[in-house]
Amino acid sequence: MRAAHFCESCGKVQPPVPVDYFSFFGLPPKLNLDVATLEKDFYDLSRKLHPDLNASTGSEEQEWSLEQSSMLNDAYRTLKNPLKRTAYLLHLEGVELEEQSKSATEQARATGKIKKQIVPPDLLEEVFELNMQLEELRMNKKTGEDDPALIAEIGKQKQTLETKHEALLQELQTYWKAWDALIDRGQAGSPATSEERAQVRDKMVDVLNRRNYIRNLVRDVNEAMEN
Amino acid sequence: MDRIVGIDLGTTNSLVAFMQGETPVVIPGDDGLNLLPSVVALDANNQPVVGNAARNSLIETPERAVYSIKRLMGRGVEDIQEELKLFPFRLAEDMQAGEVLRITLGEKTFTPPEISALILRQLKRSAERFFGGPVTKAVITVPAYFNDAQRQATKDAGRIAGLEVLRLVNEPTAASLAYGLDKKQNGIVAVYDLGGGTFDISILKLHDGIFEVIATNGDTHLGGDDIDNLLITIALDDIRGDLGLDLRHNAEAVQAIRKAVIDAKIALSSQASVKLDVELPGGKHYQREITREHYEQLIQPVIDRTVGPCKQAMKDAGLKPEQIDEVVLVGGSTRIPKVRALVKELFRREPHTDLNPDEVVALGAAVQANILGGGSEATENMLLLDVTPLSLGIEVAGGVTDKIILRNSTIPASATQFYTTQVDGQTNVAIHVLQGERELATDCRSLARFDLKGIPPMAAGIPRVEVKFLIDANGILHVSAREQRSGKEAEIQVQPSYGLTDEQVEGMILDSFDNAEEDFRRRQLIEARSETATILGALEKGKKSAAWGQLTTDEKKQIAKMEKALAAVNAEEDYPAIRKAIDALNQGTMRLAELMMDTAVSTALKGKTMDETDLGEGPTAPHPMAKAEFE
């Protein structure tokens, strides 16, 4: 059931009620969703809630309209993107993803702390190899040496990583299915146990962490190749 | 309903428009022209003049005039070092570090918002003359790539000019509204907007009247001005080399050259070559032939700077050129054939140029004004969903920017962050808010420093302060905070890094000599009095004409009575009474006017030409201020 964002009979914007993004759109917390329907709902709700269409109302309603419409935009932005949607669901489940972002890296560098980096076990060997090659490439750049074979080798590695990156998205989607099945079961009257939820959740966290790790690696490669 | 006008506050020209029935129209100035040059000067009495009148002053008294002030809006002194080299901006000598810029005109100094306010006020007057009543609400356009400080400065300018700024709309988006009005179709549209001083690219998705911006990019320091400056530099070098004259510090000569190169630039959009000819101090002439080919080589580096933002916008939108259905050109600089060729190459299609690129932004602002005012049949179902052009971040440990609202997020947008204390009993927390895409805080634009105050004293790490960052539909940031454990609203003290404080703006509003209603009445009165003078003068002439003799004694008596009444009431401050007396006299002299007309016609029929006939002010004389002035 969607929260009452506006009055059904007079169209007036109502004060915002704190809800999660799924509930804002009247959706169950499921990961497979029809983005076309979401977009249509987004447009329909925008026509009711946007400040431009409430500019001639009282100041209180204008305030509500601003808050409601910012929440609508935040919710839409998060839910329409599959990865942001997954991360958000995990956040609702109390899991904050491992900070693999570039700002975390920079921050760690600046403060001298060691950043929490989890190298996915199946990548250990490749990562070690790649880092050695990148180091060599950087040295070459400094000395002005040109090693086409090395560049070709790094390029090949990069491609392998990109393929893996893509494959992980597919893997993630199998867990979406598992998660949604749990939610459906719950709605049918037999809710999932906390262990069942945790199992699927942890798998998703693992996939996302690996994916982020690879993404950062690809970025490092790009930087080393460009500089 | 209040009248809401749409204003394009441009680097080179400014315009005001409104929705007349189903179509947006530009309101001309008192010179009858749609474009008001964004030039401000002080006359000999230190009174501000704006537009074409001020443009002459640029050459005659350059130290009393300023142009392209938009380049300085919302900027700090360290941002504008490049500008200072190329533009004759004279900063106030007593400027302190961290202070809002102040520009010297004659013996006075003005902040950029105050100068912009003078331009806005001129537009406001044009609109008020057009409507015959006060105008207090406006939609103003800004470059899509304007940051928070630049937007705030524009809003301040509106307030100083006595305008409530209901919405700041991004220029390319406004243009798309003007284009979309009669097309009402679905698809992906790219708007390429190269104006006098700024460049924007916006990519929109049009869907049943919803104009959803999906990505925007740009450069707030790129436009026709840069081409002018390039040509000026070349001319100055030439003159120095060929004639041994160093005119770089001769403001009058530089302005004369500037005028000549701008004319040449415009001519080169339609001609294969043009001859520059400028008279220099001492009577010598600087002459030079410029071919289109040479010109295009010269400006290539300038226009190439638009390529990067276009590619980034397409990348952010996740679109390839083939997926863009239409490209729209906006801004005077898109008249340059080389720019059009570049756009065609970038987007692989012929761009649209059906609407006047100088006017389309103002027309779009008028459409948005109409939507805000409750809409009409023409704008029914139209809604603009714009984005924030730059990521919003906060500075975290190590001087790193943590992005909390990413660029191209639909606005309004918000983000919530939690803060705590590091020392027992700490009651303040400082937050540094930044805007930009770079990782390090020093590479981003500092927006403001917020001081969270009044946190209840607790052990370190216990308070939990929820801070909400909200970017409104104008693209302007609002911050609110609450300590969650006590539920207490935390006090926020804002120190804008650039820009005026609320108090300063208030002061400027009070200082301004023309403010809303009161001033409008005063001006109405002045205009009515000048109308009285004209009609009485015309009547004097009428009395000397042959037609006067044809009136009955009674008619003459009536006219004399009304004339006396007008003269009496004219000395007083009562505008409606003067207006009534003028209308009465106009009405009462209708037959006289008709008779004069007949006399004129019969004289003409007798074989005399109209020129030879002494018509005085002619048949229109008793109605000098016909109300249909602008229809």
Sum this structure up briefly.
With 227 residues, chain A is mostly helical. Chain A has helices at 21-24, 35-49, 59-80, 82-92, 102-111, 124-143, 148-187, 194-226.
Could you describe the 3D structure shown?
The complex is a heterodimer of chains A (about 230) and B (about 625). Chain A contains 8 helices and no strands. The longest helix of chain A has about 40 residues, at about 150-185. Chain A folds into 2 domains: about 1-80, Helix Hairpins (Orthogonal Bundle), CATH 1.10.287.110; about 110-225. Chain A is mainly α and about 230 residues long. Chain B is an alpha+beta fold and about 625 residues long. Chain B has 4 domains: about 5-220 and about 305-385, ATPase, nucleotide binding domain (Nucleotidyltransferase, domain 5); about 225-305, Actin, Chain A, domain 4, CATH 3.90.640.10; about 390-500, Substrate Binding Domain Of DNAk, Chain A, domain 1; about 515-630, Substrate Binding Domain Of Dnak, Chain:A, Domain 2 (Up-down Bundle), CATH 1.20.1270. Helix content of chain B is about 40%, strand content about 25%. In chain B, helix 13 packs antiparallel against helix 15 (about 555-570) and helix 15 (about 555-570) packs antiparallel against helix 16. The model of chain B is unreliable at about 605-630 (pLDDT under 50). The interface between A and B is medium-sized, with 26 and 37 residues.
